[in-house]
């Protein structure tokens, strides 16, 4: 994901996550009593809109997954992924590009879901093997698009990492310069997720897209062993360089838009402050201060250990609770993913690092119109989207997503998200 749960990382330590705390506070029929599983199912179901899953198979996997049991979650999606891969490979199906595309996109999705909860032990071979499967499946799918997606690697020599990106062109518009989205995720989602959540919607409306991953994110973290870096312009600027040089014949440089999803909403805003060639930014949703969001979720006794500087005890307590299986799924996952993606084995180091991710002090440098999304039921960083809007003043439009579109990143309501986002872009930058 999206960092689907960027905010909720520690929710389960003390106070249970908001969604689980009060069932009447979720806007849809729950698919699991485990709120994080419910959310994962919604991601997969949401992606059916753009060919990235099928409904009954997802609900079938959900039926066999035990709430709170991460291993059963992984196992069921792995099984479904294997079955779907088999269908994709069957020559009786593979004669046709639409069959190929849909089936491999779905297999890829199921491999990604199978991977979601396996990051506790960095040596778990599934971290790499499931990823190799999702990547191979996805590449087969995008090679069957009307304009095949193109993998791009952009080295950033001075920082010793390489950006992983995918370029998508609009079918039938070769000779025209078109508006273009530059799309990045946050804490946990992969650029392959972005195809289903942004790219397919954008191509249908005549926008080119490039998705990218930087340090800490899915493929870069796995293959290059690097965790998140706060100066995200280091990642975005080379992508913009690439687009404006290599794709200049198809890119309308007056309509180049940066999109940030989940924790990527903060990363994108930060990068936008340093990248004058962008025309607008879209934050799904707005996020002002990552550390503040994380801290808010901590139970007061554990937070106290961190705040008085007893880092040894803090690390010991958090890790023991995790190993003993005493954390909620959300908290356990948040710690696993936080340590893995920030490349540390110390919860206090992870907490320390999160302090560098905030918009204070950089937001004034943003010179472009910004769409700031806000989800009514995304109550892990309450008030943060509004803070982004207030700091930006007239440069920002706050868009509140209510009711069933109110989950974090509007998950499960991709149509409404896309409608709102593209209507704003049309109003702000003109028709595609
Ligand atoms: C749950 O939320 C509903 C409406 O938001 C409220 O009426 C109800 O009292 C809450 N229940 C609990 C146990 O907090
Ligand atoms: C999926 O297939 C692989 C072999 O390709 C196998 O090793 C694995 O056990 C299978 N997983 C499940 C859950 O069926
Ligand atoms: C982590 O996974 C590796 C590889 O499967 C295994 O050898 C090791 O014992 C695991 N570590 C823990 C703490 O479970
Ligand atoms: C650069 O990254 C590569 C792997 O991605 C690593 O092997 C190498 O040691 C790094 N070099 C420096 C100077 O950090
Ligand atoms: C850290 O906390 C532990 C447990 O509460 C306590 O025993 C220890 O003395 C504390 N250490 C420091 C340096 O405060
Ligand atoms: C976290 O930050 C504090 C204060 O700057 C520092 O003393 C501590 O060593 C840091 N912890 C880790 C694990 O880096
Ligand atoms: C989209 O933009 C075009 C012109 O740029 C305008 O005519 C049209 O009304 C806009 N549509 C919406 C829904 O804003």
UniProtKB/TrEMBL annotation:
Name of protein: Hydrolases or acyltransferase
Family according to the record: Belongs to the AB hydrolase superfamily. FUS2 hydrolase family.
Pfam families: Abhydrolase_6
Keywords: Acyltransferase, Hydrolase, Signal, Transferase
InterPro entries registered for this protein in UniProt: AB_hydrolase_1 (IPR000073), AB_hydrolase_fold (IPR029058), FrsA_esterase (IPR050261)
SUPFAM superfamilies in alphabetical order: alpha/beta-Hydrolases (SSF53474)
Position of the signal peptide: 1-20
The species this protein was found in: Penicillium chermesinum
An example Gene Ontology molecular-function term: hydrolase activity
Residue stretches making up the AB hydrolase-1 domain: 193-308
Keyword flag Signal: yes
GO biological process, one term: antibiotic biosynthetic process
Top-level taxon of the source organism: Eukaryota
